[in-house]
Design a protein that fits this description.
The chain is an alpha/beta fold. The chain is built from 14 helices and 14 strands. Helix 1 packs across helix 2, helix 9 runs parallel beside helix 10 and helix 11 packs across helix 12. It is elongated. The termini are far apart. The structure holds adenosine-5'-triphosphate and magnesium ion (MG). The site of adenosine-5'-triphosphate has 14 residues, from helix 6. This is Conjugal transfer protein TraS.
């Protein structure tokens, strides 16, 4: 019975199997096989000379080679986390290079490693494919402007942190999951004190259903231009405010000098603004002279926001299918400011290069290899050169709409953006007294 249950769980509900049987078995397997696996994977070093000499003098067997010392073995929600102290002569790259062999030897689904500090390496092993059915952990570390947006292949949570990485670019072929990723961002930002601004040139089909939580929306390039120019004005006002707050004198301690909105006292701090742009190419394409002028003004405004917006609390989140120099001048300049890069499935190397060519060349290959059937799978990198395979939970439009309606009262009023506030009818009250709605019966 137990074996049958375990088999059934493993097949249908790998996450439950892991929590009930898998984790114990895996920990035992790692502990029992550790020394021999490390030896087979070439991760051992010969014993020190003094021990060899001692063995020779006392006429005993020469001691074995030594694997890295286990500092900690932690069972986790999706796998096992192993912390190793390397022996002299080993380096973190040895462990990273052996990760595929370790994966097979310990019978795990995935193994990744990273160096924690000099000589200490953390090996994260996952017991099953965590990205197949994404389930976010119940306990998440939420801080202002930090959104748990997706799950990483090693089982940890991927955060989109606007304070450390102000602007982001999301690329991907059509139907690859860009809009779902963006929807997750909106759902994560909705409960926070932040103004959301949306530009969705697909006639607003993605963002307008979420209108109740948005402070400004545009669904065509003309409105988008006015909206972006209003944002530039807003940015200048915020800088005026910061200037007025500075009043630096010798007596002001260093920590109290304001250079961005987060240094201002909370009661006078302007609300941060996240600008979400879906299908950015629509803003950069033109067919006539008039449209070309409009396009240049739009791109100029975007570049200015990307270059100067961070300290004023304006963050850009741009989505598109391609984002390269073929969209005209100013695009690569804008791209250089978008630090956080995410690429969903792309069809060719040049598209992947637009996301990662200039920061992490090996991520380009990983982005091309994403299979078409696992939509939502993406590669996310940053300027440090590191990248992760991530997948956002599948938030349906209905769930996102419900969340936005729930937090509609948190939509802040930004005076500069007031003309673009979407007009929405009042929510139908859930509890209308029956007597008022029931038709009068004679
Ligand atoms: N993280 C995910 N998990 C599961 N399914 C997903 C995920 N992301 C996307 N999908 C599926 O892929 C479909 C297309 O996603 P989405 O609309 O986000 O694509 P897109 O990249 O925005 O496409 P387009 O460029 O045409 O707008 C969704 O309807 C959904 O069924
Ligand atoms: Mg889309």
């Amino acid at each position: 019975m137990v074996v049958a249950t375990a088999g059934l769980l493993r097949w249908r509900r790998p996450a439950w199997y892991w929590l009930t049987f898998g984790v114990t078995l895996a920990v035992l397997r790692v502990l029992f096989r550790y020394a021999s696996v490390m030896d087979a994977c070439g991760l051992t070093v010969p014993p020190p000379r003094w021990r060899l000499a001692l063995a020779r003098m006392t006429n005993r067997m020469a001691p074995d080679s030594r694997p890295p010392r286990i500092l900690r073995l932690l069972p986790a929600r999706t796998g096992v986390v192993l912390r190793l102290k390397l022996r002299p002569g080993q380096d973190a790259f040895d462990v990273a290079a052996a990760s595929d062999r370790l994966r097979h030897s310990f019978g795990m689904y995935g193994v990744t490693s990273r160096e924690l500090r000099s000589g200490v390496v953390e090996v994260r092993m996952t017991g099953y494919d965590v990205l197949k059915r994404v389930q976010m952990p119940a306990r998440l570390d939420t801080r202002p402007m930090r959104v748990p947006v997706a799950l990483r292949a090693d089982g940890s949570v991927h955060y989109r942190d606007y304070r450390t990485v102000p602007h982001g670019l999301t690329l991907g072929a059509t139907e690859s999951g860009k809009s779902v990723y963006q929807r997750n961002l909106v759902a994560g930002l909705a409960p926070q004190h932040v103004a959301l601004v949306g530009i969705d040139c697909k006639q607003g089909v993605e963002l307008f259903p979420l209108a109740r939580r948005f402070s400004a929306l545009a669904d065509n390039p003309d409105t988008a231009l006015e909206l972006l120019e209003a944002l530039v004005t807003h940015m200048q006002e915020v800088y005026q405010l910061i200037r007025a707050e500075q009043r630096i004198s010798v007596a002001v301690p260093d920590a109290e000098i304001a250079a961005d909105i987060w240094d201002l006292p909370e009661d006078r701090r302007p609300v941060p603004v996240v600008v979400l742009v879906d299908e950015v190419a629509e803003l950069a394409l033109y067919a006539s002279k008039e449209e070309e002028k409009r396009r240049d003004r739009i791109i100029t405004a975007l570049v200015r926001l990307a270059q100067l917006g961070r300290a004023a609390g304006i963050y850009l989140e741009i989505c598109g299918q391609r984002f390269g120099s073929e969209l005209g001048k100013g695009i690569t300049m804008l791209r250089a400011q978008l630090t956080g890069r995410t690429a969903h499935r792309v069809n060719d190397e040049t598209s992947a290069n637009m996301a990662f060519g200039d920061i992490a060349p090996d991520a380009v290959l990983a982005a091309i290899q994403i299979p078409a059937e696992t939509r939502g799978l993406a590669i996310s990198g940053d300027s440090s050169g590191g990248w992760h395979r991530i997948r956002a939970p599948h938030t349906s439009l209905r769930q996102a709409v419900n969340l936005c309606n729930k937090y509609a009262d948190r939509t802040p009023d930004v005076p500069a953006l007031a003309p673009f506030r979407p007009a929405v009818a009042a929510l139908p009250s859930a509890r209308v007294p029956l007597s008022k709605t029931a038709p009068a019966t004679a």
